[in-house]
Amino acid sequence: MKKSLVLGIVVLLMACKAGKTTAISAENFSTDAEVGTIMNYLASDDLNGRDSGTQGIEKAANFIENRLEGYRINPYYSSYRDTLTGFTPTAYNVIGFLPGNDPELKKEFIVLGAHYDHIGLINPKNGDSIANGANDNASGSTTVLELARYFSKARSNKRSLIFAFFSAEEKGLQGSVHLAKRMKQEALNLYTMLNFEMTGVAMTDKEYLIYVSGYNKSNLAEVSNRYAQEKLVGFLPTAEGFNLFMRSDNYPFHDQFMVPSQTFSSFDFTNFDHYHQVGDEAAIMDFKHMARVVNKMIPVVEGIANAKVKEVKYN
């Protein structure tokens, strides 16, 4: 029996055992068409590069909110919007919430996050001044939206899931800093924070699909690969060299909660030449790769959410 078929059966059985769930195959859940629909909007010229506090990112926030509402993912606060303190003009994170289905484990929370802002309009190149931010980070936002769509259908998570879309990452992680501090003050029982950044293009000549920042800080890669039943997550030396662990939205949660908080990515500094440039457009993204990342991550998130004990730990 093929490993992929076995994985699909395992996911179905896990979903059925979790309580009030719907049996859904994770193997081909996300598709390049579904990914493309989200990406082609979030990275479109109409959003003018999604700079924080602009009309463009307002459109992106509305889009994300409508998706979450359509998935029957509840707002975490009184609305989906979490307004940043001291940021002008007004900017906000978008936060959804799916309670766990286990009476005890639902008191523990997992944050799945990505920043949905970018840098807006920059100096023109060949008449184009819109830094669309497809890979950075409409791709990560799409990954989180697709995970939200899966769990909204499967309802298989024993622990509670928070889907967080951060603003002002490009201004110094301000959105995630704000939310991490707020949730710490509210005494959130956070188990782990899994962040997604620049997942739009596949790596080449690697024996793994994605890497995790702060690889040696925890056993997250080991746990992920066990649930994926393959070497899904690897170690990228360049990520350690550039200290990516401290440069994305995972870090404020590490700083506030001191629980495993790390970022998954497939940007390896060789497979993408348009960082913060007008060329970062949806047309050059690999939607099939993105859907594959989602589908491979589903049993990982599901396994972490449903384990009897907290398995992901800092070394």
Tell me what the structure shows.
There is one protein chain. β9, α6 and β10 form a beta-alpha-beta unit. The strands form 2 sheets. Strands 1, 2, 3, 4, 7, 8, 9, 10 and 11 form a 9-stranded mixed sheet that branches. Strands 5-6 form a two-stranded antiparallel ribbon. The relative contact order is 0.18. The two termini are 36 Å apart. The protein has one domain: Aminopeptidase, CATH 3.40.630.10. The radius of gyration is 18 Å and the shape is globular. The longest helix is centred in the middle third of the chain and has 21 residues. It is of the alpha/beta class. The N terminus is likely disordered.
Order of helices and strands: HHHEEEEEEHEHEEHEHHEH
Tell how many strands the DSSP assignment holds.
11
- Residue stretches low in confidence (pLDDT < 50, at least 5 long) are 1-19
Computed over alpha carbons, the radius of gyration is 18 Å
The helix count comes to 9
Structure classification: alpha/beta
CATH superfamily, called what?
Zn peptidases
Taken from the alpha-carbon principal axes, the silhouette is globular
Question: What is the multimeric organization of the chains shown?
Answer: single chain
Task: Report how far apart the termini are.
Answer: 36 Å
Question: Strand-residue fraction?
Answer: 15-25%
Main sheet record: 9 strands, mixed
Helical residues, percent: 25-40%
CATH topology: Aminopeptidase
CATH class: Alpha Beta
Indicate the CATH architecture: 3-Layer(aba) Sandwich
- What is the domain total for the residues? 1
Averaging pLDDT over every residue, what do you get? 94
